[in-house]
Design goal:
With 248 residues, the chain is α/β, with parallel strands linked by helices. It is built from seven helices and seven strands. The protein has one domain (6-119, 151-245): Alpha/Beta hydrolase fold, catalytic domain (Rossmann fold), CATH 3.40.50. Helix 3 crosses helix 6.
Amino acid sequence: MAHQEYVRMVPGSDTAVLMLHGITGTPDHFEMFFPLIPADWSVHALLLEGHGGSVLDFGFSSMARWKAQVQARMEELLATHQYVYIVAHSMGTLFALQLSLKYPDRIPGLFLLGSPLRVHMPLSTSVMSVRLALGMVDQKNQSARDMQRTFSIDPSPWLPLYVTWAPRFLELLGEIWQTRKILDQITVPTQVFQSKNDELVHFSSRKDFVGYPTITCYHLMNSGHFGYSPEDAAFLKEKFAEMVSAEK
């Protein structure tokens, strides 16, 4: 399935929503929110460079390019809109938090899913990741299907190609470290949603968001990193609808 950006630019709109997916992720992760965005707002669900293509496309991209791409799109939206909400998943939440320090008066809110401040890789996730990379997903495993649905890289059976990914994930760890140090500087109203059964983010990361007056952390008790239970999805849509309907 093709992974493409979702773009809806509304001439004269004063508000936009920028959506930032995670590493190896896709704009499709935000599909359930698209219908909830007011019709007179602009929307751009970004597809980061190297995503939506081959293993080597991803491997030969870089964190610096992703951050520059996000920064450029943010500046473009701010040039034509007064306000820009940011909705983000996983790695995208790191970019969102960083952007909120640059534009605190122009970002009315952050909506963050599965922020990876503390990552872990259980054996079950490692096995699922290898099978996904080889195109051998266990369709009886809901978590594996969710991972496949939100994975934007074309799998390759040639495992040596994945060596090119190591620098990207090392860069991600550095980005996590830097972002953890700025939480006490966040002034933008921020909602964080951490999943109890997250396959990549340790649930203890929810504690990193405690004690900050502008940050509220919610727990999704029946969901993982890549997919949400029906009840948690309903809760997310409820909180999202509240955010986009609130007075700025």
